[in-house]
Amino acid sequence: MTKPIPKIGSRRNSRISSRKSGCRTPIGVIHVQASFNNTIVTVTDPQGRVVSWSSAGTCGFKGTRRGTPFAAQTAAGNAIRAVVDQGMQRAEVMIKGPGLGRDAALRAIRRSGILLNFVRDVTPMPHNGCRPPKKRRV
User: Basic residues compositional bias: what residue ranges?
Assistant: First the structure.
């Protein structure tokens, strides 16, 4: 009979530390994706690792209310509250999409007390890409 090989550093022996507690990033990037149906706010560190995120759906808004400016404002406030507690002071803002929550999310970010380096619109624009559908004849 062979003896089982002892596991070195198994989960029971080692202490698992969460990444959220160790994050002390003074600078971050706030990504706002505003579609017509929802607004998603993601806060990352400069390397692109997600520190915090929130959306209008996770804030409790259902159906068509997720696309409203108030829902976007609430989502931005929830996402930023967590990183302000961790010590974030400066941020860059990237806004993507045509939704109603663009301006409301930006106002909530400005009100949170984080200093903004710049605000950039990164909405993808086609350079005459796909052919549009044919015109409707009614």
Answer: 9-22
